[in-house]
Fold these 2 entries.
Entry 1:
Amino acid sequence: MKKTVKQAYKQAPWRIQIQRFGFIALALVGGTIIAFLYLNISAQSATAGIKIQQLESKRANLENENASLLTEWARLTSAIEMEKRALASGYQLIDPEDVIYIVVEGYTGKELPEIETVSSVIGSTSPIIKPSYTQSLWEWFYEYILIPDSNLKVLP
Amino acid sequence: MNHDNFFIRVRVIQVVIAVIAAVIVAQMVRIMITGSDLVSPDTRFETIYPERGKIYDRNGNVLAGNRVVYEISVNLNSVNTNQNQDQIIQTLFNVVGKDYSEKILSAQAYNAGQPDPDKRIYYLVLDDFIDPEKINYLEGYLQEYAEKRQDKKTARKLPALNLNGLEWWPHLVRTYPESSLASNVIGFVAFNDRTSPAYYGIEEEYDDLLKGNVQTIEISDDPNKMKEIPDIPPGGSLILTIDRQLQKSVENILDNAVRSTGSQSGVIIVEDPRTGEILAMASNPRMDLNNYADELAKFPEMGSFNRAIGVPYEPGSVFKVITMASALDSGTVTPSTTFNDTGSITIGSTVIRNWNGGAWGLQDMQGCMQHSLNVCLSWIAQKMDVELFYQSLTNFGIGKSSNIDLAGEIIYPLSYPGDTYWSLSNLGTNSFGQGLATTPIQMITAVSAVANGGKIMTPHIVKATIQDGVTYEYTPQVMLTPISEETAKTLTEMLAKSLELEASNALVEDYNVAGKTGTGEIAIPGQGYVTELTNASFVGWGPADDPQFLVYVWLEKPTSDRWGSIVASPVFADVVRQVVIYMNIPPDDIRMQLYANE
């Protein structure tokens, strides 16, 4: 009769505990690494967000300042001011009989002034802020992992 | 025993760590999915007002622009101590010169009694439209204070300055660098109320285009939830047909004329009849648009902000241009048709006499216009017959809108045969500009047919619009063609000759001009027409052989003299002397030489 010999052994309890502790510690370390990465990226995106807010505010202020300066320049060169300066400089209003007319070849008269020809609107219709700066981890997970097809929408 | 204790402790630590980790993960997931009030500050809705479009004259000079002012506010959530609050109040008192303590305290009292957090005041606007100089002073003051606090020598003497919660935000308001220049054309925006509509003139007429698209957007202070602020384009800008220099000259001439003739008010319009462009439109009185609140009292009557489009009046003999043009064009008369003026004519129940009550004997049509004979023109209208006469007036656009692109045009409807207030007498009186009312813009528009080869171009004041950096130029349009080119030329020659023969005050050296005076009597309720009160007018154009400008002058109730030929004609001449300079129109002999060389 053939006997099957089985060696019965059991890990020492302390070893089992250590293993379990090690697994948990490993999970914690892994979680900590993920959390660290996540927080790091979040912090970077928050910093970028703040920077963008500051830049947008700065841009708005600059646009306001430009508008103000243009108007101030217009005030300084207004008809009344220019007349004062002209008279102070010794100029005087001309009479029709004092005007000398000369023929200028090719001159077709005054044309429409070129003003505001450069649009203040940025032509691009795509958003300045990339989604990666604004979407949460969950949104990223949902968009890129769960429904990867949606990825196609944002690819250039 | 020791082992057991050890394992129990390890298990407890495991459980505790696992629970903490689970709580952290659960919280992270919750924040991720639902958000949290702790890490997500309140979002707010903010209305973004784009920069209001600018208004330029035809040479690109700014007539209406924008400037920065500041709104000062307190974020009550951030004001953490009484000292903080007191320092805000004291600092603002030092800088702005106003005491805001009552405003802040009443808001806080309200919050204290308000159980619903959503209804509490967190963002309290203390003041608005603060000049940048005051904000610059405030910022300089704070910087200087901070530097002194850093300096060990002075730091001990200065208490820490806690202005938590104090905020100031820039925004733009309308401003008019030319003050009162062309104010009657431009209109104004009530800049102390950003939701208020614009009033009068260009500002009102083109308000939708100028103000752009106001948008309300959601703004979060959480940088992780930050949304891109949409790039809201500024409102469209306008380039007017007005020439700033000419406008100023014309306003000066008008103001001097009103003063020297003792007139109640006045109007001058300069138009290019070939395109319908209004080169200058002056109305007296005017106001400083930057100070509209105080100056609106100058305009008690409806429409008086811009009398050129808003005040209809009986124009008098300038209207004879329309009557004669209609008669010539319909073939009712020719320049050589004669009329024996006996000094009066009865039409309906009204006996019509000439301006001097005299009889002028045999006159051709040239003489009728030269001497401005009411009797002759009434006879012409009678000869045309009622239906044709009024059809002609309709063809000239009398009694209808001129279609000028300015807000506030008033239309005084013309009475037609069959209307309640029409009688046959109207046929006679209407022929020389009495018994009907038009505004200066309607008169100049009608007369422009004679100055422009029979065609009336739509009068307009906007030469081009600018949107998103693209300029869209207005294309001149023919509005009406009431007479033929031949009629226009014939009448222009007649009127130019009339001025020469009577040695009119309207004549301008070296320039051949055509025109007609007008002295309209004014009807006073209960008294009828009062001889002493008149509307003195003149309409003229030139150069007569190639009209490039058309000028309309109206002086209301002049006291120095009642006749248009005395008070209005020289004003026309003064205006033309300026117009030819600004429009580069050489004297006739030089111009003819240039044409010959071409």
Entry 2:
Amino acid sequence: MARKTSTMSGTGGRTAALFLTPFFAVFALAIIAPVVYSLVLSFYAQQKSGLGFGEAKTSFVGLENYLQVFQSETFTGGLGRLALYCLIYIPSMVGGAVVFALLLDATAARARKLFQLLVFLPHAVPGVIAALIWAYLYTPGVSPLVQALQSGGIQLNFLDAHLVLPSVVNIAVWEWTGYNVIILFTALQAVPREILEAARVDGAGEIRTALSIKFPLILPALSVIMLFTIIGTLQLFTEPSIIAKATASVTSTWVPNLWAYDAAFNRHNLNQAAAASIVIALLAAGLSLAVTRLSSRMNKS
Amino acid sequence: MKRHPLLRRRFLAGAAGLLSSAVLLTGCGTGPAATPPAPAGDASGEITFWSSLAGMDKVAEKFNASQDKIKVTFETIPNGGNGGYAKLSTAITAGNGPDVSTIEYAQLPQFVSNGQVLPLDGFIDKANTVDKLNEQIRGLVQFDGKSYGLPYDAAPMVMWYRKDLLDRAGVGVPKTWTEFETAGRKLKAVAPKSYLASFYPNEPTLMAALAWQGGAKWFGTEGDSWKLGLRDEATKKVSDFWQRMIDQKIVKVEQAFSDEWSADLANGTLAGVLGANWSATGIQKRTEASGQKGKWIAAEAPNWGTPAGAFYGGSSFNVTKSSKNPAAAAKFIEFLATSPEAIAARGNTGSAYLAYPGLTKEAQKAFDAGYFGNDIYAVFDKAYATILPGWQWGPNWDVTNTALKDSFGALTTGGKIDAALDSSAEATLSGLTQNGLSVKE
């Protein structure tokens, strides 16, 4: 066909459209449509009356669902818990990843490939399985870990209301540090060798090089990591919902995502669940924007 | 004025339904019991059946083999605690749910209230199904005079004890809760690290059964409103008692079915299990390997002075709103809930206790109760005979259930049962009111 040759000559527009259409079709169907549907749902309410037997009426209620979400102590409590989670999780995970990556990149590092694999391995374990493994390791009476601590005279219940948050953070750290080490390590590999050589000639040791040369140069990669981590944190759902099977300390509304799930499937209030989901999505968007702004400013300076 | 013809048509349809069920009645009355039920018009075609109950695949196969008009496709779904009801509810709403569902009594009202299950009246042979049931169990599937399912099992709450541990402590089987407390103290005197039972934060239906047995009514209707009783006098009495048991360490707070609980059973930390007839297999599985054969006995749960019991668990079979063939679905439900063949086909799936008269002995045949030190079915019979009438489940048990689970979570770190009931009552009130229901306390 004649058309073939014309596209071959690379006029751009049509070829691009051809390649982009499948993406946008799926994107519209799987992302845009559900979001629009949730948005619509969130402005309506299913109202029953009396004993509730019989048809429910659907009526437009404006922002009332959003109001209920924000007025709910369990939702705001969940947000607070999530903030606390971030406060523990991000420094320990990102910090750990930076240290691991710098160690791997240090010229003195031995058996680099092996350590790379070992560090990455936990990430290859699916999140659900990781949570199940840790639930086992946390449960008093069956966990070898708890038993070992006990024989050393340390009485710890990882699953009680005080320790369960750090325990969940630990699962996430275990899962994600390795993954981020790989990203940072790749960024470190891209640091021009001549700069490092210049530093060495100037008399900088390994630690000085790591802190003053390598670290600033991987800041862009670090900001990408921060972005993904923050979005990922807002999506926190799997680990707590698995741990909830082993302990009653993780409530059904522990984090905002669980709150939305509870609204939809326990309280049978799909409209309220939709409102909560929109709130979570907006939060993710806002935080992402803030992080990108902040990091681009940091990178410029 | 305009509605008159419609009304008349509805009346005629009703009359026709009555007539056909009368025909059915006489048909069944004259024929020998073993012949398949009289054909109910166009009850044929393909239907799907969802259940989390073990062995139901075999029952569906048996049904398919027994006749050639209806073909049942079975699908295992997770149980309620693992998201089974969320799956069922969303599937029905989306219009791709099964024809026949399995719903526990506590959850049934919310499916009825959401219009997700159909009344069976007109589809089933009422005289030979619903009308033959014990009044207490019938009340759990009937709302507003209509039957929204056929009950499968009737699970009386019973208590399981390690007879050897009770003997060692020098106590008999407690008849009342007062005796239970004394027995617990004596047990602790002999074995300070052991417990007489557990309190399960993840099983609010057991707390409900305990309250029920104590005379509480958590849900009721008053005119056009629901009446909540989570903070009634009887519940207070029950919660105070269990709080005292926890405080004295006679009862251990731990998740039911958890690894911790299993370990406590296996190593003899627990001298008792508050459960139901269906607990037998769970106890056997967890204690068999540590040589506890013959040491476990069943007993009626202790009472408050006069024999009283409650149901703890149990499921019904229902026709969902998404069913395209309710007639065939109802036919299959009759088989599931009332036919001895269905019970026999399921094989050994534990110590079932069934709602329909005469079926329990069929289940008993398949279950080897030799692991236990007494006649457990005799105990179930006694417990079943004392179930307190008048209990009703609320329009959304899930709200109360999760609220209780959440607040019971604090029991290990100083929380109190009282406070848990208090906050759960509040959560139920606001949850129901937000759905527009009228609720009083």
